[in-house]
Amino acid sequence: MDNIDAKWEALEAKCRECKKCSLCETRTNCVFGTGNTNADLLFVGEAPGDNEDKTGTPFVGRAGQLLDKYLYAVDIPRDNVYIANILKCRPPK
Questions:
Q1: Which residues contact 42 (CB under 8 A, 6 or more apart)?
Q2: Fewest beta carbons within 10 Å, which of 18, 48, 51, 89?
Q3: Per-residue CA distances from 51 to 14, 48, 54, 91 (Å)
Q4: For residue 29, what pLDDT is reported?
Q5: pTM of this prediction?
Q6: Distance CA 52, CA 75 (A)
Q7: Is 85 in a helix, a strand, or coil?
Q8: CB within 8 Å of 36: residues ≥ 6 apart
Q9: What are phi and psi of 43, to 5 degrees?
Q10: Pair 51, 90: CB distance under 8 Å
Q11: pLDDT at position 55, please?
Q12: What is the Cα–Cα distance from 33 to 37, expressed in whole angstroms?
């Protein structure tokens, strides 16, 4: 593991342990991000939805299905991009 990978894992661990706001009280999972951390293309959503909160993975619900269709249409494998959200915890309601 190189230094960049170690820093990435440390950042993810820090996010998973975060309790700096009340969103941590209602989340099921911290939704950090997924994909190729060395990707040239990054997709950033606003916040995790219910499906994302349950799985801990961004863009797995309806928005994720739409994103997958767009990626397929332009011949970009999902594994070639990184996908995250601004917020790592699902807001209530």
A1: 81, 82, 83, 84
A2: 18
A3: 22, 8, 5, 13
A4: 96
A5: 0.88
A6: 24
A7: strand
A8: 79, 80, 81, 82
A9: -110, 130
A10: no
A11: 96
A12: 9
- Indicate the DSSP class of residue 1: -
Beta bridge partners of 85: 45
CA dist., res. 16 & res. 88, Å (int): 9
Task: Dump the DSSP string for 2-60.
Answer: -HHHHHHHHHHHHHHH--SSGGGGT-SS---EEE-TT-S-EEEESS--HHHHHHT-SS-
pLDDT of residue 22: 96
Instruction: Write out the chain's pLDDT in tens, 93 residues.
Output: 678 788 989 999 999 999 999 999 999 999 999 999 999 999 999 999 999 999 999 999 999 999 999 999 999 999 999 999 999 999 997
How much is the pLDDT for 5?
83
